[in-house]
Design a protein that fits this description.
about 325 residues; Arginase, Chain A; 9 helices; about 30% helix
Length: about 325
């Protein structure tokens, strides 16, 4: 976390000041990114099939993330006996949002891809705040000149539709588009449950194209350690988190809530184990829709997951 304490003469409490992610420095010049982690907003929600509103997700997550902006010389976790993100060891910046052009999916996606490419060119790890899940498509596109990645998805829905009524770049398509990439070596899809947006043939296609698909109940039956063992070890991982992968009792603020989802510690333990198993090289968190979010629960969950994931990614490296 950033240094926010008495050393500069200000307490700088979370409810004070401008909202960047974790109240970390804002970098407006995308050719001058110098950081370990760079946060990009992707406020695009034209890909939704039911409730829109995720265009306001990046602002909500940033606002919630100020809760975790206290200095305290890092974030001490007494269960792990580890101080994550100790001061001066990890540089996190917020580069603002990609430019979204209303009704223009293709150009909006290109603008998101451009931002992710700038982050990668700077040698930083992109953390992208959605937006609906279609924003994963330009995020993955930006990795075409990087080393191969294994994609790990936390989600209620498979998102493996090839084309429906001519739509190929909506929020039901991203995992299919990712699986088509030669540099995506496989997919692990966790939390998939209930009546999905993908028909049976999509599941058949996903497995044929290298997906390992587990529901929440299957994950619980196997246990976190056994699930992690199914993911190729020592790989580069791209993580995509649809907040509806979590139960709507703790994540109501999303466009397509689905009961029976993960609880907080299940998600955290999966992500922590993944950070130990290989190298996480990119993250997006999508489908936070604050209009449906009572007491900001979903935004706080999202910010807490991301801050904990960043801390573990950097510590386990």
């Amino acid at each position: 976390m950033s240094t926010h304490g008495y050393d500069n003469g200000r307490l700088d409490l979370p409810f004070v000041g401008i909202c960047t992610f974790g109240k970390n420095p804002y970098v407006s010049d995308w050719d001058a990114i110098t950081a370990d982690i760079a946060v990009l907003g992707a406020p695009f929600d034209f890909g939704t099939q039911w409730r829109a509103g995720a265009r306001r997700g990046p602002r909500a997550i940033r606002e919630a993330s100020t809760l975790f902006s206290f200095g305290h010389a890092g974030a001490y976790d007494h269960e792990d006996d580890i101080t994550y993100l100790p001061d001066g060891t990890v540089k996190i910046v917020d580069i603002g949002d990609a430019d979204i052009i209303h009704t223009d999916t293709i150009q909006s996606h290109r603008n998101i891809e451009f931002g992710v490419r700038k982050i990668l060119a700077a040698g930083a790890i992109p953390i992208v705040l959605g937006g609906d899940h279609s924003i994963n498509i330009p995020c993955i596109n930006a990795f075409d000149d990087q080393d191969p990645v294994h994609l790990v998805q936390i989600d209620a829905h498979l998102d493996f539709v090839d084309e429906r009524h001519g739509v190929r770049y909506g929020h039901g398509n991203p995992m299919r588009r990712a699986a088509e990439k030669p540099y995506v070596t496989g997919l692990t899809q966790l939390g998939i449950r209930n009546v999905s947006s993908t028909a049976r043939e999509g599941y058949d296609d996903a497995r044929a194209m290298g997906s390992d698909i587990l529901s929440v109940r299957q994950v619980r039956k196997l246990g976190i350690d056994a699930v992690l063992e199914r993911i190729p070890a020592g790989e580069r991982y791209y993580v995509t988190i649809d907040i509806d992968g979590f139960d709507p009792s703790i994540a109501p603020g999303t466009g397509t809530p689905s009961h029976g989802g993960f609880l907080y510690y299940e998600g955290l333990e999966l992500l922590d184990g993944l950070a130990k198993r290989g190298t996480i090289v990119g993250v997006d968190l999508v489908e936070v829709a604050p209009d449906y979010d009572s007491s900001d629960l979903t935004a706080i969950l999202s910010a807490q997951l991301l801050m904990n994931l960043i801390g573990r990614m950097m510590h386990h490296r």
